[in-house]
Amino acid sequence: MTTHAGPYPLAPDASAENPEISADEQQFNDLIEADSRIEPRDWMPEDYRKSLVRQISQHAHSEIIGMQPESNWITRAPSLKRKAILMAKVQDEAGHGLYLYSAAQTLGATRDGMTEALIAGKARYSSIFNYPTPTWADMGSVGWLVDGAAICNQVPLCRASYGPYGRAMVRICKEESFHQRQGFEILLELMQGTEAQRHMAQDSVNRWYWPALMMFGPPDDDSPNSAQSMAWKIKRFSNDELRQRFVGMLVPQAAVLGITLPDPDLKWNDETQKYDLGEIDWTEFHEVLSGRGASNAQRLQRRRDAHAEGAWVREAAAAYARKQSERSEMVAS
Length: 333
Ligand code: FAQ
Known about the structure:
Layout: H1 23-33, H2 46-65, H3 67-71, H4 80-105, H5 111-119, H6 137-154, H7 163-191, H8 195-214, H9 226-231, H10 239-257, E1 267-269, E2 274-276, H11 282-292, H12 296-309, H13 311-332
The structure holds Phenylacetyl coenzyme A (FAQ).
Enzyme class: oxidoreductase
GO molecular function, one term: phenylacetyl-CoA 1,2-epoxidase activity
EC number: 1.14.13.149
């Protein structure tokens, strides 16, 4: 894939292929067609920009809200090593949020605007973070299933047509891969432990399996954004394709763990060369999206409180930046 950082203005004959559309639009279409990249200074259709801001900001919010279910366990992790690993992971999620907010800012969205929308409850974030984490095994399930689903969904996004998004995803995926392995390892250790530990691990997977499948979004025939996103090469695979790929990845890993995936209808289909899955409870998904999941209210309230408690940090950082710029102006004059 080539990376485009094409200069303006466009070549004069760029609209020659289709007189109905502008030279700018022709260049945009050509870049998409050539699997090249759209960069912030390139012309882009307004709907492409809006859809990217929509997806990237939701993704950023997910990373930030996604810190909460795990930070819940930092003080209670069963050993110093586990605590250090968990702290590093939660910090990584904050970093992912920052790369993604920055990518959305290159499209004209403001950080304040995105934050305001989140704390006002007007912005979406992933359904998965509205479930509670009552046991230590949930740290294993979040890593194995939630980060596993995130990787499956996000590796193709490394090739997203919008340059800053794709590049942010490359680093994020490397870190998610470590996260997924640490979750797998927590579950493996529990499954090799006592009867009570094995029970805790299985119970946790029972609770997280179906919500993890919902992370990929509604079924393809009920996914209003997919067709256009795929035409623009933001998304490369449909929601159902990625969900299917994820289950195919989980089955052998569950066998190594000795864990049962809680779907009695899950079975290999020789004809389709895929797993047949049981019915996903889409009513639950829509309830969570409407704000009625087990932890929606708590997650948003915690985010609001953290934003208010962090006001002095933002003020101090702004004052420091102001002083630094005054100082450099004085040196320059
Ligand atoms: N939750 O037409 P589609 C992570 C919404 S990061 C909430 O299919 P699209 C790391 C969707 O926005 C997890 N809303 O939409 C981590 C749309 O609403 P809108 C986040 C959902 O965009 C691990 C409507 O339903 N990852 O886990 C969900 O084509 C551990 C119709 O849906 C990303 O955001 C959902 N599950 O496909 C952090 C990846 N699904 O906007 C901490 C990037 C759908 O029209 C700890 N995003 N909706 O109002 C994507 O790949 C896509 O946006 C999809 C949805 C696949 C999520």
